[in-house]
Amino acid sequence: MRAEILQPIYYKIGSLVRDLGGTVRDREITFLETDPEARLMFEQVRLLNEAAAVTQILARTNGVHPVVAYTELCRLIGQLAIFGPDRRIPELSEYDHDNLGGCFFELKRILDYLLNMIGADRKFQQRPFGGHGLQMRVEMEEPWLAPGWQMFVGVESNLVSGEVIGLLTSGQMNMKIASSDRVEEVYALGHRGMVFRYEPQPPRVLPVTKKDTYFSIERSPDEWPFVQRTRRLAIRLNERLLDGDLEGKRDVMIRGQPGKQPVMRFTLYIVPPKG
Question: InterPro entries, alphabetically (predicted)?
């Protein structure tokens, strides 16, 4: 039951918390938010955090009695039902100790349905780059590889946008974008890699703050097949201009003037095709 029911539910909730929670953080959405769409996202993350706390214990603890797990999953359905089309709980089966598989799989089906409703109307997807050796990497989902999906690298920084553009496009940072298994060769040999350009007018669905600068990414025919195979995109920067290592980090610290430590944080944004 734990491997087939509880752990998949926990992993799915955790993935939603990471994706939606990252958006709430990056857009600086708070309890005082007045925009309806942003407020909905905030409330979804709040309930998902509660759900993640409960399902983490259920998924990782040995010896949890089935009736306890069943009760907690029913509680989650009640919390998440407001995000379903009917805005109320569906009919729930009674707990049956002689048919645990049947009643638990029914709860999982309902939870999967409700969780799929959360964020379903989001007009973009996002995922943060994280440090791996000298690279900043991000895992891509299979649907994002389909034609028509637009890709952008968003750079959040304490530098003004013009300084970010200058550092990343003038050759100072020698930024290269390619699949994780190709980017070192691309960087070492001075190849172009995936073509990226500053995007002064990103799609309106993307979050825009004074800290954000966007670069569009083209599906370069020489490099895109490697990304499709690995489903992993990587950024390589001039390590001589980095202040500290990247391993396991989100923030890229750059050598700067005394009293001013430039910091950049990279996020992949995916915008689906219209219609």
Answer: T6SS_TssK
Give the mean pLDDT of the chain: 89
Question: Which domain, by its residues, includes 158?
Answer: 125-271
Backbone angles phi, psi at 205, to 5 degrees: -75, -20
| 113 & 129 share domain | no
Q: Give me the pLDDT at residue 66, please.
A: 93
| Residue corresponding to tokens 């708070």 | 30
Q: What is the C-alpha separation between 37 and 21, in angstroms, rounded?
A: 14
Given 3-state DSSP classes, what are the helix, strand and coil percentages for the chain, each rounded to the nearest 5? Answer: 45, 20, 40
Note whether 190 and 108 are same-domain residues: no
What does the alpha-carbon distance between residue 57 and residue 51 come to, in Å, rounded to a whole number?
10
- For the chain, the domain total comes to 2
pLDDT tens for each residue of 223-260: 999 999 999 999 999 999 999 999 988 899 998 766 78
Distance of alpha carbon 73 from the chain centroid: 25
In tens, the pLDDT along 10-26 reads 988 988 888 788 778 86
User: Which of 117, 144, 174 delimits the end of a domain?
Assistant: 117
- On whether both 170 and 37 belong to a single domain, the answer is no
Q: What are the E-state strand segments in the chain?
A: 125-128, 130-132, 135-139, 150-157, 176-179, 196-198, 212-217, 232-236, 251-253, 263-271
